Amino acid sequence: MSSNKKLFIQTLGCQMNDTDSQHIAAELEKHKDYSQTDVMEDADLIIINTCSVREKPVQKLFSEIGQFNKKKKDGAKIGVCGCTASHLGKDIIKRAPYVDFVVGARNISKIKDVVDIKGSVEISIDNDDSMYEFATAKTNQYRASVNISVGCDKKCTYCIVPSTRGEELSIPVEMIVDQVQKSVDQGAVEVMLLGQNVNSYGRRFSDGREKSTFTKLLQEVSKVEGLERIRFTSPHPLHMDDEFIEEFAKNKKISRCIHMPLQSGSTSILKAMKRGYTKEWFLNRTEKIRSLVPDLRITTDIIVAFPGESEEDYLDTLDVVKQAKFDQIFNFKYSPRPGTEALNMEDLAVPDKIGSARLIELIELHKRHLEAIMPTYVGQTFSVLVESLKANGEVCGFTDNYLQVFTKGSDELLGKFVNVKITSNSRTSLKGEIVQ
Q: TRAM domain: from which residue to which, for each copy (predicted)?
């Protein structure tokens, strides 16, 4: 018998939050008989899964829950989960008494226990979810996301995540492989492995087992029959050793697209950020991996106007962008976050006008690179995993190196690999025709 209880989840932020939301939904369906709805006004339970990385996350959280409280049906409950929940805890209920419960990012496994307890707050960053077997989440049937660790041991001075998700614990390899296998059995052909720093995997397990490496995990996941493509995010440049790069290059199941978060091209700013590597190390790693994987695409994150960033520091960032030739850049102008070490660097703040100008220049530089590189794909043929159907009779999918491709097609192509010859391009995507 189907449930009459409806769950609406609003997910804010990163891919890890998306996966956490999938776990929440699966747990509540299995243990509390909730089914998801896309219509908030129909929901008996509304959950906001928050992200502390967003700009002004606290203001946006209370704005969201205020709107939900006005529009929800009588008797519907509201819960707040995620990193901002970990950060604020009981203060959320103090400021918004209509919130029924708060569950931190490190406590997702407890959702079934707190959902019926008014005023419950579970935010311990010492909680161990690494050995918990979550109910199987229903996801995009062609692609699945699997967490490989919880928490973060890094101390980046602009980031609050370690204080909201706790110390890093790796999930046992057999649990990860089992989850990948279940996803493949449900129809997935691609898996995304998720962690705050995936290539520090294996440094610490809560059951005391011997240390391992991310490279060994990739090798084990690769053995799953029926799995065609492996992606992961995000590796930390500091831990991109030769063993990892060589496995990346030779393992045919690993997608030829890698996210390498630069943050800054200046060694002095990287030191102030506590990133642990230098400009020279980052460039060495990009050169090494590109030399072994010619069709590689590299994406990155960059923060401009970090406290103390001089014009010379900024020019170092532009220099790395020009040398590394990033295929996608997620650009940000620094903004202070409560609870971070960088908040105490206000006396080194870069004037807002200068920061904005640097951001615009960086964006324009990258646009010129894309305008030069994207036309070079025209005439080439790629294997594309078709993932979605568009209203105009086109389907959309991604190549092995994660280029977005549109082509004419029907829902019969969903979940299949097709060869597409590229006929035109924009700055961010390609169009083509299916060929045999």
A: 375-436
Query: Residue 360: which residues within 8 A CB-CB, separation 6 or more?
Result: none
Q: What is the token pair recorded at 210? A: 């011997």
Quick one: 370 and 387 in the same domain? no
Judge if 368 and 383 occupy the same domain.
no
Strands (E) located in 215-359: 229-233, 257-259, 297-304, 328-333
Give the structural domain span for 425. Answer: 378-434
**Rounded Cα–Cα distance for residues 32 and 73 (Å):** 20
Q: Phi, psi (5° rounding) for residue 191?
A: -125, 140
Q: Is 396 annotated among the ligand-binding residues?
A: no
pLDDT tens, residue by residue, 180-198 = 999 999 999 999 999 999 9
The answer to whether the annotation marks 81 as part of a ligand binding site is no
User: Do residues 117 and 184 share a domain?
Assistant: no
When divided into structural domains, the chain yields a total of 3
Does the annotation list 257 as a binding residue?
Answer: no
Confirm whether residue 51 is marked as ligand binding.
yes
Q: Produce one character per residue of 1-21: b if its CB has 16 or more CB atoms within 10 Å, e if not.
A: eeeeebbbbebbbbebbbbbb
State phi, psi for 404 to the nearest 5 degrees: -80, 130
CATH value at residue 94: 3.40.50.12160
Give CA–CA dist 238/215, Å, rounded. 15
- Whether 156 has a binding-site annotation, put simply, is yes
Q: What single letter denotes the amino acid at residue 393?
A: G
